[in-house]
Amino acid sequence: MLRNSYKALRNNLLSNTWRAASSHGPRQPLLPPEKRLEKAHPQFTERSQLKYARRLVVKLGSAVITREDNHGLALGRLASIVEQVAECHLEGREVIMVTSGAVAFGKQKLAQELLMSLSMRETLNPKDSKEFDGATLEPRAAAAVGQSGLMSLYDAMFAQYGVKIAQVLVTKPDFYNEETRNNLFSTLSELISLNIVPIINTNDAVSPPMFIRDDEPAGGARKGIPIKDNDSLSAMLAAEVQADLLILMSDVDGIYNKPPWEDGAKLMHTYTSDDMNSIEFGKKSKVGTGGMDSKVKAATWALDRGVSVVICNGMQEKAIKTIVGGRKVGTFFTESTESANSVPVEVMAENARIGSRQMQALTAAQRATAVNNLADLLVSREKYILDANAKDLAEAKKNGLAKPLLSRLSLNSAKLKNLSIGLKQIADDSHKNVGRVLRRTQLADGLELKQVTVPIGVLLVIFESRPDSLPQVAALAMASANGLLLKGGKEAAHSNKALMELVKEALSSVGAEHAVSLVSTREEISDLLAMENHIDLIIPRGSSELVRNIQEQSLHIPVLGHAEGVCHVYIDRDADLKKALHIARDAKCDYPAACNAMETLLIHEDLMSGEIFNDVCNMLKREGVKIYSGPRLNQQLTFGPPAAKSLRHEYGALECCIEIVPSLEEAINHIHTYGSGHTDVIVTENDAAAKHFLGSVDSACVFHNASSRFADGFRFGLGAEVGISTARIHARGPVGVEGLLTTKWILNGQDHAAADFAEGGKRTWIHESLPID
User: Fold this and answer.
1) pLDDT over threshold 50, residue 527
2) CA-CA distance, 243 to 308, in Å (whole number)?
């Protein structure tokens, strides 16, 4: 229901008074003072909703825009922030900036002036002069000097994007005097309506009076937050203008449970008021007036008044745009019970790492027992699973899900029984997985080296539509003692939840229920791909678009998979007609949406005058396959199928391309040019041609007189597969348990030291290969 309300809100934002006008027209002004407490929309409870924020307050702390040496501004960093604010403004968002930096900028200018004014004697005789320290400069004087320069700098930077700005200089009493308070927000309202970005700064050139306590209304005004620094100023401002989002930019990544430099400190991606007692605060900023304690108090105060808040590191690249995009950056303040009670995905990953080590400590028989238990549960709980699947199918049909996706989503009794058989096969083979010795070497007397198989660690498998992938992948992870995080598509939410309960039940029988977890929160995939400290390998299973996006976005975690399945069947001139028809039909029509389905049929040109070409075309047409012609075929036909737009295309449906080639070598060259390295087939009775094809085609799977549909983990006898890889490093082709293992070296010695083998040492190398038990 909440999700629907935000969909309505999004449409509302684009059509009514919440929508900011384009740069050619006025914007909707802020609410008048007497109505400012009325919230126009429900408070955001999830990061994904922040993309709907239209009114932003961005506070830049001194540590963000000041150089590390405290002498002047960090111009590159400031330029990046200005660029992001300008982009938000040009997108139609209303942005108000609260900035520090006048004192730092003024100190830099005053320091230069003082150095220039030193006498010639002091300059020529530095021993006679005292060392100049910019920190001794009067801050109020520095602020007075720096204000104009800071605003000139902002003006020049924003001008690059065609954005106008205005300085609004405030003092603390302005918020406690009702008249000046109303004047202030009237000014802000007018500036925003004129398409101008207000930049607010405290007037540090004058000494402010002591702040007024929260329980002491001034001049009859309602209670407010004690304004001690720009954090509290931003919170007050955000509440008054009914901002959707307040971003407090600091020099740390967010809120930690203890000072970030201490052991055991962990970043809190989500914060609620209940977390206050579990946090230990450190010292305040060295260059600003507020510490993390003040930021948390300001954030919670604003949150209580309906403003969503994120505290983040302003030094992080594109922090503002990333936050507004719904990504997991900094600490998000929320009062959502769901968010507070859900297990963070980082904790799931840590539990998966621990669970992996627990699985490694088990015997092979115990791991096999867990897999067999899951296989049995798939059959014994059939009704429970199918009832959950029926809910997904009903919602999918209601939402108009395409028929091929409905087929993938659907579960039935036969599918579950086949899954159970496959899982039992995995269990039977699991006895020779983890801890298998691959190599033994006698390095020297009493010094033996072994290479043994071990799990990779923690896997992240992202899959779409197909709930049957969940028990398959879970069983492979269990058999290989890997920890596993699963991220399924929302269209299979009910099915995945039911299947995950069975996985947990099977794991609990061996005391490792946390080794596998389902990420059911609305976690952005891009956030999961940034967890390089927790995840060791990503395996996407879904559309080519999904796989390609994950491969592009994952910068630090390896991705196992393939983006496309452009598979070829080549009918050689020595092919048997009956075999060619049977194989081509199965390769294209058995399951057209599969990644191992034929997409291009290559035919030797010598067969054009015989029966094979016409018979193949007629067979495909009878099966309802839409045919496209390649360039060579198109030139030879007066009337024929339309030309293919591309020879490298995965149709994923009852469609394919037919092309002719003059020779076996040309067929191989075509496959290397337009194929995706997935699966390619030759149909021929010529053994020499078959041998040459099998040895020359550089694909993960190369077949002779067999359908491309055999490229499958179950059909290969692997029990199941986590996916098919076209990569050249690690696993390739259908990936079963073997592809989820790596190795480690174990060395057993007595009192061996490397120095013993130096020239003239007491020991010598043997390097003798030993038999493997």
Assistant:
1) yes
2) 8
